[in-house]
């Protein structure tokens, strides 16, 4: 049996182009006891923050639909980056669209979980636990 997750010790990066959503997600993370939260407005800033964090980041929550670089492209660049110490850091994709094509594409990019808006504290907590305990989702499970 694995050890329980120590939420207060987690360091999380939230990437969302909407300030309101960033603040909402951060508030829910704080309610879960996660106080080490940083934020980015887009994928480029997110990649920069991941590179700067070194091995100090435990999880990324990334919006799917953002201008310039969407969540799919963010994860692709993260997973292939030479400038990131841990390119396999767990990533949860957050979106308002749960259609099968989006889910399949997100899984193909190497995500660890998928969370559909609106976000509830319970769902976020459960997805975080699964993402931190598991591996990236296997694309073959969606065929």
Can you walk through the features of this model?
- By secondary structure, the chain is α/β, with parallel strands linked by helices.
- It has a single domain (7-142), classed as Rossmann fold (3-Layer(aba) Sandwich).
- It contains 5 helices and 5 strands.
- It has helices spanning 19-31, 43-53, 71-80, 100-109, 121-133; strands spanning 11-15, 36-40, 59-63, 91-95, 113-116.
- The chain has a 5-stranded parallel beta sheet, sandwiched between helices.
- Strand 4 (91-95), helix 4 (100-109) and strand 5 (113-116) form a beta-alpha-beta unit.
- Helix 2 (43-53) runs parallel beside helix 3 (71-80).
- It is globular.
- The model has no long low-confidence stretch (mean pLDDT 87).
Structural key phrases:
143 residues; alpha/beta; Rossmann fold; five-stranded parallel β-sheet; 5 helices
Under the CATH scheme, which class?
Alpha Beta
User: What can be said about the biggest beta sheet?
Assistant: 5 strands, parallel
Give average pLDDT, whole number: 87
Enumerate the spans where pLDDT stays under 50 for 5 or more consecutive residues: none
Overall body shape = globular
Lateral arrangement of strands in the main beta sheet:
2-1-3-4-5
CATH superfamily: Response regulator
Assign the CATH architecture: 3-Layer(aba) Sandwich
* Distance between the first and last residues' Cα: 30 Å
- Strand composition percent: 15-25%
When the domains are counted, the total is: 1
Give helix % range: 25-40%
SSE-based structural type: alpha/beta
Q: How many DSSP helices?
A: 5
The secondary-structure element order is EHEHEHEHEH
Q: How large is the radius of gyration? A: 14 Å
> What is the strand tally?
5
CATH fold label: Rossmann fold
């Amino acid at each position: 049996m694995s050890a329980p997750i120590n939420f207060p010790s987690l360091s999380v990066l939230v990437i969302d182009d909407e300030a309101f959503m960033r603040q909402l997600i951060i508030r829910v993370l704080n309610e879960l006891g996660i106080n080490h939260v940083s934020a980015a407005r887009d994928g480029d800033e997110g990649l920069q923050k991941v590179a700067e964090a070194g091995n100090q980041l435990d999880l990324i929550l990334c919006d799917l639909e953002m201008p310039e670089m969407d969540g799919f492209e963010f994860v692709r660049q993260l997973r292939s980056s030479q400038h990131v110490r841990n390119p396999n850091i767990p990533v949860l994709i957050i979106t308002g669209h749960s259609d099968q094509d989006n889910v399949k594409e997100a899984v193909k990019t190497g995500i660890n979980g998928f969370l559909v808006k609106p976000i509830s504290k319970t769902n976020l907590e459960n997805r975080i636990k699964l993402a931190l305990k598991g591996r990236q989702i296997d694309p073959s499970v969606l065929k």
